[in-house]
Amino acid sequence: MTCNRRGVMIVVVMAALAWAAPDHIAIAQSQEPSSLLILPRAAERNDFDSVVSVMQRGDYVDTEGEDRRTALSFAAANGNMQIVDFLLGHQAGVDRRDRFGNTALHWAAMNGHADMIKRLLAAGAAIDRQNGEGTTPLMYAITNNRTLAVRALVDAGADVHIQDYTGHDALSWAQGKPTILPIVQRGAH
Fold first, then answer.
1. Higher model confidence: residue 17 or residue 133?
2. Are 185 and 179 in contact (CB under 8 A)?
3. Which residues contact 173 (CB under 8 A, 6 or more apart)?
4. Average pLDDT over residues 139-151
5. Residue 80: how many other CB atoms lie within 10 Å
6. pLDDT class of 41 with cuts at 50, 70, 90
7. Sheet arrangement for strand 9-10
8. Can you give the three-state secondary structure of the chain, one letter per residue?
């Protein structure tokens, strides 16, 4: 990496992290320090116009921000369908993982955005993808008492028998949640 006199970083070569799967490979870019990570920040702020502007100047759709989160994961967490549709239309990686292994679907489930869950699944999101702790989107929806999100995931075929890395499945996560347990039990049959 070199810097010119104006402080513009020029990334010559970026290697994939040793553990990274193909969806984590970094793309070489040239960016001014003040504009670093602007796409994820614009999505986090629900600023559609800025998202469009950044993409029009040619920025990489899967640029990673804080904790390696992409604009798609921020928009999904916020339930911002306009930004999600725009990013998916520009080939955003629907199953890209952040630093903790969460995908956009995990974030949509955590925040209870049932329509977003359906949109991401329609775009090919992996419904049962486990994060770094073995937690699935369904488990996040359950733990956050997101009844509509639980219903959307179960109706779409989420596997309620997958265990996290502590040996708990969605049925055990749903214990003590009277509005959610019957939905999860329905998915067990």
1. 133
2. no
3. 139, 142, 143, 184
4. 98
5. 23
6. very high
7. 2-3, 9-10, 30-31
8. CEECCCCCEECCCCCCCCCCCHHHCCCCCEECHHHCCHHHHHHHCCCHHHHHHHHHCCCCCCCECHHHCEHHHHHHHHCCHHHHHHHHHCCCCCCCCCCCCCCHHHHHHHCCCHHHHHHHHHCCCCCCCCCCCCCCHHHHHHHCCCHHHHHHHHHCCCCCCCECCCCCEHHHHCCCCCCCHHHHHHHCC
- Spatial neighbors of 146 by CB under 8 A, at least 6 apart, are 109, 110, 111, 112, 114, 140
Structure tokens at 88: 């998916």
- May I ask the CATH architecture of the domain 37-187? Alpha Horseshoe (1.25)
pTM, full prediction = 0.81
Domain boundaries, the chain: 1-36, 37-187
Cβ atoms within 10 Å, residue 161 = 10
What token pair was written down for 64? 């990673």
Distance CA(86)–CA(134), nearest Å, equals: 30
Phi (first) and psi of residue 70, to 5 degrees: -95, 170
Name the token pair of 85: 């549709």
**pLDDT at 59 (0 to 100):** 85
Q: Which two tokens stand for residue 184?
A: 């999860």
